[in-house]
Specification:
Helix 1 crosses helix 7. The protein has two domains: about 230 residues, Cytochrome Bc1 Complex, Chain A, domain 1; about 180 residues, Cytochrome Bc1 Complex, Chain A, domain 1, CATH 3.30.830.10. A hairpin with a 5-residue loop joins strand 2 and strand 3. The protein has a seven-stranded mixed sheet, with helices on both faces. The chain has a five-stranded mixed sheet with strand order 11-15-12-14-13, with helices on both faces. A three-stranded antiparallel sheet has the order 6-5-10, with helices on one face. By secondary structure, the chain is an alpha+beta fold. It is built from 15 helices and 15 strands.
Length: about 425
């Protein structure tokens, strides 16, 4: 058991690795009325290729398998799914899938250890059936169609498709209607056996709970459970194809939605060094495109952008990119200015010590505020467990960061970017 206190953020973590490989992180937070429990597997939509450990046979799962499996994990025996059981125990349950992980969670104010046991049991003892898999296809299809009606979801997905063509990173987390219909019970069973072993999972519990009793309950729950041997391992696919220059589609929108994506080379840093790179990438984007920049204010004054303007960076396994988007009638002008600003970032008027200090202070304030959210805290810890760093060190690294650190990140990654443009135009 490893207990760590992070003075900068006044947080404590207790980390335990069980004999079966399950990583447990407890985050006690006094004076909170609810407790969150999140069980996560290091398996997401990007993981579609598996390789047999002995024969080297390669199997490709349908796109969206991780999301499909998330749906079916809640299928219970005798028609009662896990949602109902949690509800009877006074808890709310949910689940979500990303490109890299699948998480199952509950929040409750009482019966904490009982709900933790339920969380572990329904994920580790699945009861989904071939019949249930077939019935679920229509439900997932409807979910995908719902997202297809969301123009902001569509523009983001267009950017990913343009940045990562013919690669799982460019496909919607839920897959497509075609791949959903191709998914079989056998596909889900193989995915489960390959990625739901405790050695590939982490359990995070945070809130006001009895630490010793919770540790005991978790250990007792895991005793005697037998898990299938993992015959297949993840096969990471390299990004080979060039980005798509431009894509456009028509939807029922009042004005165009425009987006620009930049794909960077993968970051090879690991552990705490990776966390530093993540923060440097976010700060550089803030310095060049953020709300405190001269250009951003200029775009607002000219009414080229409004509150829909958004930008984000992703610095994760395989996916390292920057994405800008806004709803605007000035799509051509913005695309031109965004590209020019990016290509000449080292000469930006806003790349100076004074602006850097402003951005850092804002980032620290945002981080401290977000740490008041139990959901944000839990989700940030998930990434840190699988990437082998402590997310609570983020504040310390922000305080230590220099403008030179950020510039070095930019020189290493922004100088070799590939781009894609995406536009959603109003129907005639």
């Amino acid at each position: 058991m490893i207990k760590t206190y992070f003075a900068d953020v006044d947080e404590t973590t207790i980390q335990i690795q069980l004999e079966n490989g399950l990583q447990v992180t407890l985050i006690p937070k006094n004076n909170y009325h609810r407790v969150y429990g999140i069980l996560t597997t290091n398996f997401g939509s990007i993981d579609t290729s598996l390789r047999h450990k002995k024969s080297n046979e390669i199997i490709t799962l349908p796109a969206g398998t991780a999301h499909f499996l998330e749906h079916k994990m809640f299928e219970g025996m005798n028609g009662e799914d896990a949602f109902v059981k949690f509800m009877r125990q006074g808890a709310e349950a949910n689940a979500f899938t990303t490109h890299f992980q699948t998480s199952f969670l509950f929040s409750a104010s009482f019966e904490i250890n009982k709900n933790i046991e339920t969380l572990l049991d329904f994920v580790q003892e699945p009861t989904f059936s071939p019949e249930g898999v077939e019935k679920e296809k229509n439900i997932i299809e409807q979910e995908l169609l719902m997202y297809l009606d969301d123009p902001y979801w569509r523009i983001h997905q267009l950017v990913l498709e343009g940045l990562y063509p013919n690669h799982p990173a460019g496909v919607d987390v839920g897959g497509t209607i075609e791949t959903v219909n191709k998914t079989s019970y056998e596909d889900l069973k193989l995915a489960y056996e390959s990625f739901y072993h405790p050695s590939q999972m982490c359990l995070i519990v945070l809130g006001d709970f009895d630490i010793e009793a919770t540790i005991m309950a978790i250990k007792q729950n895991q005793l005697g459970k037998v898990f299938p041997q993992q015959m297949y391992e993840r096969l990471s696919l390299p990004v080979k194809e060039e980005t798509i220059a431009k894509q456009a589609l028509f939807m029922d929108v009042s004005q165009p939605i425009v987006a620009l994506g930049f794909r960077f080379k993968e970051i090879e840093a690991e552990g705490e060094a990776l966390l530093k790179k993540v923060l440097e990438g976010e700060i550089l984007a803030d310095l060049i495109f953020g709300p405190t920049t001269t250009q951003n204010q200029n775009w607002y004054e000219k009414e080229w952008i409004d509150s829909s303007f958004d930008y984000m960076t992703s610095i994760q396994r395989t996916m390292h990119y920057l994405h800008l988007s806004v709803s605007s009638h000035y799509e051509k002008e913005l695309l031109s200015e965004w590209e020019s600003l990016f290509n000449n970032w080292q000469n930006s008027y806003d790349l100076n010590e004074q602006h850097f200090e402003t951005v850092i202070k804002g980032k620290i304030g945002d981080l401290l505020q977000m740490l008041n959210s139990m959901e944000y805290t839990a989700y940030s810890v998930i990434d840190s467990v699988f990437e082998n760093y402590d997310s609570f060190n983020g504040l310390k690294y922000l305080k230590e960061m220099t403008l030179e650190d950020v510039i070095e990140y930019g020189k290493e990654y922004w100088g070799e970017a590939s781009t894609t443009q995406a536009v959603i135009l109003p129907n005639a």
